[in-house]
């Protein structure tokens, strides 16, 4: 498993995460599990991870350092969960992300600091949330943005 590039753990009953040994995986799919909380340092030994899929879990909470040390992360999907908010620094170490998808959650606020750090972002999906407020200058830093921005809130 140490030399595995892709790890797909979809459709299981995983409720807790902790990677204790360094793995060379670049893609991790944990969709359709039972994750509720992404704890600090959940992915700390996955230094080569570039794509992380967390769709269709029960995620309500992302602790501030859950994605710490994921410097190479380029694509993050956390769709179809129960997220209402997240710390604005939760992607502090992931400035290379070019695709962020937070569709079909319960988000009400877009933090200005979140998008300010994501200078490589070219795709952002926020549709089907409960967004009521977008902080001033939230999208100022998205110079490379190439695709349409989806903010549909039809719940």
Structural class: mainly beta
Estimate the mean pLDDT confidence: 86
How far apart lie the N and C ends? 42 Å
Number of helices: 1
Rg is 15 Å
Q: How many beta-strand runs? A: 10
Instruction: Classify the helix fraction into a percent range.
Output: under 10%
Task: Give an overview of the whole structure.
By secondary structure, this protein is mostly beta strands. Helices cover 4% and strands 17% of the residues. A six-stranded parallel beta sheet has the order 1-2-4-6-7-9, with no helix packed on it. It has a two-stranded parallel sheet with strand order 3-5. It has a two-stranded parallel sheet with strand order 8-10. The longest helix is centred in the C-terminal third of the chain and has 6 residues. It is globular and about 45 Å long.
Please sum up the structure shown:
With 155 residues, the protein is mainly beta. 4% of the residues lie in helices and 17% in strands. It is built from one helix and ten strands; from the N terminus they run E-E-E-E-E-E-E-E-H-E-E.
């Amino acid at each position: 498993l140490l030399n595995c590039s892709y790890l797909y753990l979809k459709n299981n009953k995983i409720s807790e995460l902790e990677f204790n040994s360094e793995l060379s995986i670049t893609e991790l799919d944990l969709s359709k599990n039972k994750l509720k909380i992404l704890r600090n340092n959940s992915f700390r030994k996955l230094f080569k991870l570039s794509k992380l899929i967390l769709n269709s879990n029960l995620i309500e909470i992302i602790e501030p350092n859950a994605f710490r040390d994921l410097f190479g992360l380029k694509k993050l999907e956390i769709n179809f969960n129960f997220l209402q908010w997240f710390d604005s620094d939760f992607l502090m170490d992931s400035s290379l992300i070019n695709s962020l998808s937070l569709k079909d959650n319960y988000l009400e606020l877009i933090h200005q600091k979140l998008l300010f750090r994501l200078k490589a972002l070219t795709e952002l999906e926020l549709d089907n949330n409960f967004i009521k407020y977008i902080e001033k200058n939230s999208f100022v830093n998205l110079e490379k943005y190439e695709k349409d921005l989806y903010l549909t809130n039809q719940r």
